[in-house]
C-alpha cells in the first residue's frame, strides 16, 4: 500500500530534504500550494471567488516546538483576516486551522491552543466569516472536540472536521448532527493503527457513506470533503433524499485538484469550497494529500501535463 509509505515519508527529515531539492518539486508544489505569503494568495482569492467558488484558507505548518511559534501561527491567521476584510466576502472565504499549529502538542497545549485560536475565531466573526477546526491524528481529537464545543458557546458557526476511517466517527457524527454545527467529512489522512481505524479502502468508503447519511439526515450543515466522483454523486443523492436545498450543504475539494469539477459543481448551483493552502512549510501537507488516496498521485501527475 502506497499510503502508509508516503505518510512515513512525511515525517522523515531525509525525505523532506530529498523532495524539497528535487528540480520538479517546485513546479508541482506551485500547482497545489497557492503561494508562500498572504500577498500571493489575495489574487488567488479574487480569482476563485470571481468564478463563483468559495474558499477555506489554510496557513500550512504543524511542527510547532515552542509557544513563540504557536503565537506566530496565530498572527499569520490574523494577518490573513485583516487582508480579507476589505474584500467583503463574508463566509465565501473562511479559514481552516490545525490546533497543532496553535501549540496543542506542547506542555499545557490544550489551554494554549484554545487561547491562541480564540482571537482568530473572534476576528473572523468580526468580518462576517468563520473558522473550521481541522482533524489531525486520533490522539488529538478529544482536545479538538472540547475546544470546538467551547468556541461554539460564543461562536456557534465554528466548524470541525471528522474522518470516516476512524471507528469513533459514526458516534461523533450522530452527536454533531444533532446540534446544528458545521461538519466537514473527509476520509482521513494520518497513519492510524488498525485498533482505531479502518485500513481497507472499501471499508473506508462504506463508512464515509454511513457517516454522510447521518449528517445529511441531521440538523447540522454537512461539508462533503472528497474528490471521488462516486462519493460526490452519492452525496447529491443523500442530500436530495434528506430534502436539503442547494445552500444547506456544500462540497469541498483541494486547490489544484479536479479544478474543472469545482467549476462544474458551482455552475450547477452547488456551494463549492476550495481548500486553499499557502505558506512555506508545505511538505507535510503536500505528502498527506498524496497519501490520502493513491489516485491523488495520478491527479498530481496529470496536473503536470494539463491545466485541468
From TrEMBL:
Residue ranges annotated for the Proline dehydrogenase domain, each copy included: 44-301
Named cofactor requirement(s): FAD
Keywords: FAD, Flavoprotein, Nucleotide-binding, Oxidoreductase, Proline metabolism
Enzyme Commission code: 1.5.5.2
Enzyme class: oxidoreductase
Short name of any one Pfam family annotated for the protein: Pro_dh
InterPro entries: FAD-linked_oxidoreductase-like, PRODH_bac_arc, Proline_DH_dom, Proline_oxidase
Protein's pathway: Amino-acid degradation; L-proline degradation into L-glutamate; L-glutamate from L-proline: step 1/2
Substrates-to-products reaction catalysed: L-proline + a quinone = (S)-1-pyrroline-5-carboxylate + a quinol + H(+)
The name this protein goes by in its record: proline dehydrogenase
Provenance organism: Streptomyces coeruleofuscus
Lineage of producing organism: Bacteria, Bacillati, Actinomycetota, Actinomycetes, Kitasatosporales
Amino acid at each position: 500500500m502506497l499510503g502508509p509509505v508516503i505518510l512515513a515519508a512525511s515525517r522523515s527529515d531525509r525525505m523532506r530534504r530529498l523532495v524539497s531539492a528535487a528540480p520538479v518539486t517546485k513546479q508541482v508544489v506551485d500547482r497545489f500550494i497557492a503561494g508562500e505569503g498572504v500577498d500571493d494568495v489575495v489574487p488567488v482569492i479574487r480569482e476563485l471567488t470571481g468564478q463563483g467558488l468559495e474558499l477555506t484558507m489554510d496557513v500550512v505548518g504543524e511542527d510547532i516546538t515552542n509557544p513563540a511559534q504557536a503565537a506566530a501561527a496565530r498572527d499569520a491567521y490574523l494577518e490573513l483576516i485583516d487582508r480579507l476584510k476589505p474584500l467583503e466576502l463574508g463566509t465565501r472565504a473562511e479559514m481552516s486551522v490545525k490546533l497543532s499549529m496553535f501549540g496543542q502538542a506542547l506542555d499545557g497545549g490544550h489551554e494554549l491552543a484554545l487561547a491562541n485560536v480564540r482571537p482568530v475565531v473572534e476576528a473572523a466573526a468580526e468580518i462576517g466569516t468563520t473558522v473550521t477546526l481541522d482533524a489531525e491524528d486520533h490522539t488529538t481529537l478529544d482536545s479538538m472536540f472540547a475546544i470546538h464545543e467551547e468556541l461554539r458557546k460564543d461562536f456557534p458557526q465554528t466548524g470541525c472536521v471528522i474522518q470516516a476511517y476512524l471507528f469513533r466517527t459514526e458516534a461523533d457524527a450522530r452527536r454533531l448532527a444533532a446540534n446544528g454545527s458545521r461538519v466537514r467529512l473527509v476520509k482521513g489522512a494520518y497513519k492510524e493503527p488498525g485498533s482505531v481505524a479502518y485500513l481497507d479502502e472499501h471499508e473506508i468508503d462504506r463508512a464515509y457513506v454511513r457517516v454522510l447519511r447521518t449528517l445529511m439526515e441531521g440538523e447540522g450543515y454537512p461539508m462533503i470533503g472528497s474528490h471521488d466522483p462516486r462519493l460526490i454523486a452519492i452525496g447529491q443523492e443523500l442530500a436530495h433524499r434528506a430534502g436539503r436545498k442547494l445552500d444547506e450543504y456544500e462540497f469541498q475539494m483541494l486547490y489544484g485538484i479536479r479544478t474543472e469539477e469545482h467549476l462544474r459543481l458551482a455552475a450547477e448551483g452547488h456551494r463549492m469550497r476550495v481548500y486553499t493552502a499557502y505558506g512555506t512549510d508545505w511538505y507535510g501537507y503536500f505528502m498527506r494529500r498524496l497519501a490520502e488516496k493513491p489516485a491523488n498521485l495520478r491527479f498530481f501527475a496529470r496536473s503536470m501535463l494539463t491545466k485541468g
